Amino acid sequence: QVQLQESGPGLVKPSETLSLTCTVSGASISRFSWSWIRQPVGEGLEWIGRIYTSGTTNYNPSLKSRVTMSVDASKNQFSLKATSVTAADTAVYYCARVVVTSYYYYGMDVWGQGTTVTVSS
Amino acid sequence: EIVLTQSPGTLSLSPGERATLSCRASQSVSSTYLAWYQQKPGQAPRLLIYGASSRATGIPDRFSGSGSGTDFTLTISRLEPEDFAVYYCQQYGSSDTFGGGTKVEIK
After folding, report:
1. Do B35 and A107 touch (CB under 8 A)?
2. Which among B47, B98, B100 has the least Cβ separation from residue A109?
């Protein structure tokens, strides 16, 4: 059974860097692509970005200048860093497995439980 | 960026009724790149439909998806108590986007 678990500080100060890690169990991280999604309280889902098996990344254009995703295959983890955070970055952050081939998208089929990040001084 | 607009914002129905949820894209989306998710309060989203019409593993057959181009639909044939939730459509591309969601609530 594949499981994902987000971890990281629950509180980040404005202008600082948000760093989250998603630990994958039950699957090899090198075989799949992975995404981060966030959700402000009471609002909808916002896609942050994706990292493919090749290491290629796609980011939400509105966040692209501030976010970086990476994979640590030795730890079966992937991570998200977002610089210069503001209160608008306060949200529940989810990591998810992406199942996609060169011609078909099978969706984000496994999600972590989510971790709440608050940006406040 | 492709904008997905979901309607209605809220759907008030009774158990046993049929629910029809709409997702309209600002430009054409390949059917192979359109998915639907269900989210209940305090939980992560769950994949329901991929490829616009294929049910994900373990999803009951009362859930069905259809559509092409810019218009997609999620149908729940007979609402069960556990189906009252928020539903999101999502398109995959160089920049993914989600729709704003439709809340299906008990009437």
Report:
1. yes
2. B47
Q: A61–B33: do the CB atoms touch at under 8 Å?
A: no
Which residue in chain B is spatially nearest to A60 when comparing CA positions? B95
Contact B1/A at CB under 8 A: yes
Cross-chain Cβ contact B44/A61 below 8 Å: no
A50, two tokens: 């994706």
**CA atoms of B6 and B57, how far apart (whole Å):** 24
Separation between Cα atoms, residue A19 and residue A69, nearest integer Å? 10
pLDDT tens sequence across A33-66: 999 999 999 999 999 999 999 999 999 999 999 9
Question: Does position B72 have pLDDT exceeding 90, yes or no?
Answer: yes
Longest dimension (CA), chain A: 45
Asked if A47's CB is within 8 angstroms of B44's CB, the reply is no
- How sure is the predictor about A78, in pLDDT bands with cuts at 50, 70 and 90? very high
- Give residue A21's Cα distance to chain centre: 8
B59: its two tokens? 């999803």
CB-based burial label for A21 (10 Å; 0-12, 13-18, 19+): middle
- Contact by Cβ (8 Å): B47, A107: yes
- Report percent pLDDT > 90 for chain A: 97
Return phi, psi of residue A29, to 5°. -65, -25
* Mean of per-residue pLDDT scores for chain A: 96
